[in-house]
Design brief:
Structural class: mainly alpha
Largest sheet: none
Shape: rod-shaped
Strand content: under 5%
Number of helices: 4
Distance between the termini: 69 Å
Order of helices and strands: HHHH
Length: about 110
């Protein structure tokens, strides 16, 4: 064997030995547990507040107010009518999510 081949083989052996020792001494990073990303907890709080009982009460109140203003509103401007319809649609989406959760025991999440 030539000197060049001996040196390369020696460096390869030393490199593999260092890699093996470092693998044995390091802590497993994947075994730390499933904690999730840092923004998941605030997002879950927002989800619970959008599908909870307070959101259901507010959406029912929104449907009631929007319905009454559309029925007894008289001559409304185009912008006001569109704003009332937007409130009505948002209220229906929130209450439909809670209704699906209550009836079918599934998450009817709309976000």
């Amino acid at each position: 064997m030539s000197v060049m081949t001996m040196t390369a083989t020696r460096w390869l052996t030393v490199g593999l030995l260092i890699a093996g020792i470092s693998l044995l001494l390091c802590e497993p990073a994947l075994a730390t547990g499933a904690q999730g990303m840092p923004w998941e907890t605030p997002m879950q709080k927002i989800t619970r507040s959008l599908t909870g009982p307070v959101a259901m009460a507010i959406s029912l109140l929104g449907v009631l107010v929007a319905g009454v203003s559309l029925i007894f509103g008289g001559e409304m401007g185009d912008f006001t009518r569109r704003l009332v319809m937007l409130v009505f649609v948002i209220s229906m989406v929130v209450s439909a999510s809670a209704l699906l959760s209550a009836l079918f025991n599934t998450s009817g999440l709309v976000l």
